[in-house]
C-alpha cells in the first residue's frame, strides 16, 4: 500500500536551520526574562527597524538613529488599533478601509466606536481603488460635514497597493494613512518597504505569516515622538510616579520576550523565506500557463511592484467544469476552512448571499482530498453580516474576484515537487 502523501499547507512556520530561535528563547528562560518586555523585545524591534528602513528614501537621522521606529506588539490587530487611536479616531468618526481584506483591518475601527467606510478594489493589484477612495472621501464630507479620520489600505496576499496615488489623495484631504502590511512583510513599492509610506505601518507575525513569533505584530511609526506615544498606549499608559498613575486609557499590548526571541531568530531567515515564496509563484505561473480558464494572479510588470507573494492566488473562470461541482455546497462545512477548528459557530445553511462559484468550491474540496490545503480568497468585508449597515463604495471587483479566486500553498515547506503535484491535481480535476 502506497504511503499517504503528507499534507501540504498554505504557509507553515519554518524555523532557521541553526536553531537561532531556540537560543534566544533559552536565553530568555535562563535570565528569567519571561514577561512582555526585555532584551529580545528590544533586539527584535531594532532588527525590524533595520529591515523596514532598508531603502534609499528612508535615511538615518543626523544622530545616527533610523527615521522609522517600530513597536513590537501582541498582534497585528493591536497594531491597527493603536495606529488608528493615535490618528485621533474616536466614537462617531469614520475610517476609510479596504473591503477586500481580513477582518483585522476593519474590526479595530469598531473597537474605537468609529464606523468603517469600505472601498472596493481595482483589478490590477486587487487592493483599494484610489479613484474610488477619493469618491468615497468626497461623498463622506458631503454627507457628514467632515473628512474620514484615517485611511487603511491593505497589501492583499503581499501585493503592494497603489501607494503613490493613495498618498497623493490622502495628503490632498489631510487624512493620515495606516498601511496594513500584515500580509506584505518585505514587499516593496519602487524599492521602498511597505508600511513606511504612511503615518503608521502594520506588520503581523502570526503563525502562518512570512516570519512568525507564534503570535504577534508590530507598528511602524513616523518618528521618535510617535513611537513614544504608541509605546505608552501599549503599556497601559503609566505616568512617571512611584505608583500606578493613568492619565489615559492604555492597553496591555506589548510583545512577550519569549515570542520576540522567536522573532529574532526568524529575522535571520526572512530574506530566504521571501525568495522562496517568489520562487513558488514563478513555478505556478510556469506550470499553469497552458491551463485554459485558470489564471495565476501576478504583480504588474512595470517594475514598481515587488510582492512577497505571501500566498499565491489563482482565479478559475466560471465556465471551467470541475469534477464534483454539482455536489458543491450540498453539505454544511463542520470545521473551519483555514481557521481554528473548534472555535466556530455551526452554520445553519451551506449557502450565503455571496460565495465562491461551485467550480471553485469543488476544486477546494478536490485539493483537500488530495492532502492540499487551499482556501477561498478573503470574503469582502462589505458582504459580512456584521457590517451590513456600514457605508460602502463599490465597483463589483472584490465580489467578482471572491467568486472565482483561490489561495494556493506558498510557504517555506512547499517544495518544487509539491507545486508540481498541486498543479497536476488541479489539471486532473478539470473536465474537458
Write up this protein:
This protein is an alpha/beta fold and 432 residues long. The protein folds into two domains: 20-266, 3-Layer(aba) Sandwich (Aspartate Aminotransferase, domain 2), CATH 3.40.640.10; 271-428, Alpha-Beta Complex (Aspartate Aminotransferase, domain 1), CATH 3.90.1150.10. 32% of the residues lie in helices and 12% in strands. It has helices spanning 20-30, 39-52, 76-86, 107-111, 130-144, 163-173, 224-234, 257-266, 270-287, 358-369, 397-404, 416-428, and strands spanning 69-73, 94-98, 115-119, 150-152, 178-180, 188-189, 192-193, 200-204, 217-221, 294-296, 305-306, 312-316, 375-376, 392-393, 405-408. The strands form four sheets. It has a four-stranded mixed sheet with strand order 1-9-8-5, with helices on both faces. A four-stranded parallel sheet has the order 4-2-3-14. The protein has a four-stranded antiparallel sheet with strand order 10-12-15-13. The longest helix is centred in the middle third of the chain and has 18 residues, at 270-287.
- What is the chain-wise order of helices and strands? HHEHEHEHEHEEEEEHHHEEEHEEHEH
CATH class of the largest domain: Alpha Beta
What is the molecular shape? Answer: globular
| SS summary, helix count | 12
CATH topology of the largest domain: Aspartate Aminotransferase, domain 2
Radius of gyration: 22 Å
Number of spatially distinct domains: 2
Number of distinct beta strands: 15
Helix content: 25-40%
**What's the name of the CATH homologous superfamily of the largest domain?**
Type I PLP-dependent aspartate aminotransferase-like (Major domain)
Structural class: alpha/beta
**In percent terms, what proportion of residues is strand?**
5-15%
Strand order of the largest sheet: 1-9-8-5
CATH architecture of the largest domain: 3-Layer(aba) Sandwich
User: Biggest sheet, open or closed, and with what strands and sense?
Assistant: 4 strands, mixed
Unreliable residue stretches: none
- Give average pLDDT, whole number: 94
Measure the end-to-end span.
31 Å
